[in-house]
Every structure is written in C-alpha cells, then in structure tokens.
Design brief:
Blueprint (H helix, E strand, L loop, with lengths): L1 H14 L1 H13 L6 H9 L4 H13 L12 H4 L1
Helix pairs in contact: 1-2, 2-3
C-alpha cells in the first residue's frame, strides 16, 4: 500500500504542484488527533483538488439543516 501511495503522490505532484503541497501540509496536520479524520476525508483521501471540492460540496449539501425536500431548493435554480 505504501508503494501505491508513493506512486500516486508522484503522479499528483507532477500534474498539480499546488495540490501536492496542500497534501504535504495535510499529512503534517493529520498528526493532530482532533483533525485527523477531517483532514483525511477532506484532503488525503482525494487524488486531485477537483475531487476534494466535490466531496466538500456534497457534504455541505447533505447537512442536516438543509431540507430533504427538493421543492425547498427550487429558489436556487431560478
């Protein structure tokens, strides 16, 4: 698994240096027990920035304060 992780890390860094830097910093922050789960699910679990953004938006839209009734969101598209 470590070799797979290292291989994907080199692919990511060659394509998107900014995302690679974010991932490097997230690995350091992940050592904080209070933030580990959030950092893993928000950053380290994703191969690219786009995937991380989609994941975060999906989590926010699934928030309990939003209604599950699609009609309540009809004003958003208008």
């Amino acid at each position: 698994m470590l070799q797979t992780l290292l291989g994907s890390r080199s692919i990511v860094s060659s394509i998107d240096a900014v995302w690679a830097r974010v991932r490097e910093e997230a690995e350091v922050i992940e050592l904080e027990p209070e933030l580990a789960a959030f950092i893993y699910s928000s950053v380290l679990h994703h191969e690219c920035l786009e995937d991380a953004i989609v994941h975060r938006i999906a989590e926010r839209l699934h928030h309990s304060e939003l209604s599950s009734n699609p009609e309540s969101l009809s004003g958003c598209a208008a």
